[in-house]
Write a structure and sequence with these properties.
By secondary structure, the chain is of the alpha+beta class. The chain contains three helices and four strands. Strands 1-2-4-3 form a four-stranded antiparallel β-sheet. Strand 3 and strand 4 form a beta hairpin. It is globular and about 35 Å long.
């Protein structure tokens, strides 16, 4: 998959509120009511990641979830990352 250039990424991020580009990754932090809710959402995201065969770099501390996406094979952000970010937004929006 082709690595997107900075302009392409910034254009795609216009449709992903709160996501930003940093160190060849797109990232966003989420805060939930409590740990149980954060873990529940992470589990839902994990199943969708398996379907897409694309997996995030993420960190969970209590009710906070930090997600970073990049396509390691491409050395940066690709359309796969943009699609996964949209999936994550849909999951979080449903929770």
């Amino acid at each position: 998959m082709k690595k997107l250039n900075t302009n392409e990424i910034e254009e795609a991020l216009k449709n992903l509120k709160g996501w930003s580009l940093k160190d060849d990754m797109i990232e966003k932090s989420f805060t939930f009511k409590d740990f149980k809710k954060a873990f529940s959402v992470m589990t839902h995201i994990a199943f969708e990641c398996e379907k897409q065969d694309h997996h995030p770099n993420w960190e969970n501390v209590y009710n906070n979830l930090n997600i970073k996406l990049s396509t390691h094979d491409a050395g940066g952000v690709t359309q796969k990352d943009i699609e996964l970010a949209h999936t994550i937004e849909n999951i979080v929006g449903q929770s």
